[in-house]
Amino acid sequence: MVRRAVFLLVAGASAGLTLHHAPSWVQGWQPGGRLRAGRGPSVDTELVNSPWQAPGGVGGQTHLAALPRSSAQVEEPSSLAHRAFAALATVVVALLVGMGRPQAAAAREVDIYYGVGNFFHLQHELVLKEALDLGRRETDITAVAGYAGGTGSSTLDRVCYSALSGGGSDYAQQGHAQVVRVTLPEANVADFTRAFLDEVSKRTTFDKGPQFRPLIGVRGGLQSPAFQRIAEATEGRAQLIKGDGNDPDTLGSQPGKGTPTIYVYDAKLFPFRFAETSNQFHPDPPEAYTMDYRQLNQVLSKAGVISGNGCL
């Protein structure tokens, strides 16, 4: 099969066809890489493929338009023959490279939630880190706001921001804290934890109380395979203790002073609960955030990544 494909490839080349007309996802293909076919060029520089673009950001926030665009310029096929040959060339390249190199194993991913202060600001910071460090855009974004760390719930097992829709009690009264869950390659857990610790050090007395307590949640808790990476990142910067649920605040009356104590929860025992869609990708006054960031609410809702939690 490979010999026949190579023969056809050579025949096509002799007929004047070149790989110059191969689709962009063929030219950019790499073994073990993640293909992103069908994305517009603006996705390289924005969180959302939107015609609107802020001139530099809002409220001092860095806009993702500052990211470099891809330098590859792809010329569209001008005939059916060119398109057919490009498709054939794709198969040949994939077969030859696949036979010559071992395929890279998929990176192990970890669901982990972080909490400190209000989730509006923390979600924004983690989304930007996903975009800048992991190259994620649109529905690849995983940082979503929610509640965790408590043992209570209301009617129909709901955890709600407001007591009006929470059966007479809100998330804080049920022992939960505001958190943001993100799905990471295990190799990136330490780096994202360091970014989280930066937010812990910035916490103010305005976000004081058990609902704003600093915490980390991962399946297995202190016994999680990912905990070693968490401990590596927090060494000398924080004390990690087991979370038992409904725990009090740990930063006392002077947040940011000294070495903070951070709860570590077993996410199997204290699962993440989605926040209301109205609380996803929300501005954190006076920080307004850019339009492309706020539009992630619509993009991820349409894709089914986030949905209503039954609360008002």
Question: What does it look like?
Answer:
By secondary structure, the protein is of the alpha/beta class. The chain has helices spanning 2-14, 24-27, 80-100, 119-134, 189-202, 227-234, 291-294, 296-302, and strands spanning 109-115, 144-148, 177-185, 215-218, 239-242, 261-266, 273-274. A 7-stranded mixed sheet has the order 5-6-4-1-3-2-7, with helices on one face. The longest helix is centred in the N-terminal third of the chain and has 21 residues, at 80-100. Residues 2-45 and 50-75 have low confidence and may be disordered.
DSSP summary: helix tally? 8
CATH superfamily of the largest domain: Peptide methionine sulphoxide reductase MsrA
Radius of gyration: 24 Å
Order of helices and strands: HHHEHEEHEHEEEHH
Shape: globular
Instruction: Predict the CATH topology of the largest domain.
Output: Peptide Methionine Sulfoxide Reductase, Chain A
Structural descriptors:
312 residues; alpha/beta; Peptide Methionine Sulfoxide Reductase, Chain A; 2 domains; seven-stranded mixed sheet; 12% strand; globular
Write the layout of secondary structure elements.
Layout: H1 2-14, H2 24-27, H3 80-100, E1 109-115, H4 119-134, E2 144-148, E3 177-185, H5 189-202, E4 215-218, H6 227-234, E5 239-242, E6 261-266, E7 273-274, H7 291-294, H8 296-302
Parallel strand pairs: 4-6, 5-6
Antiparallel strand pairs: 1-3, 1-4, 2-3, 2-7
Helix pairs in contact: 1-3, 5-6
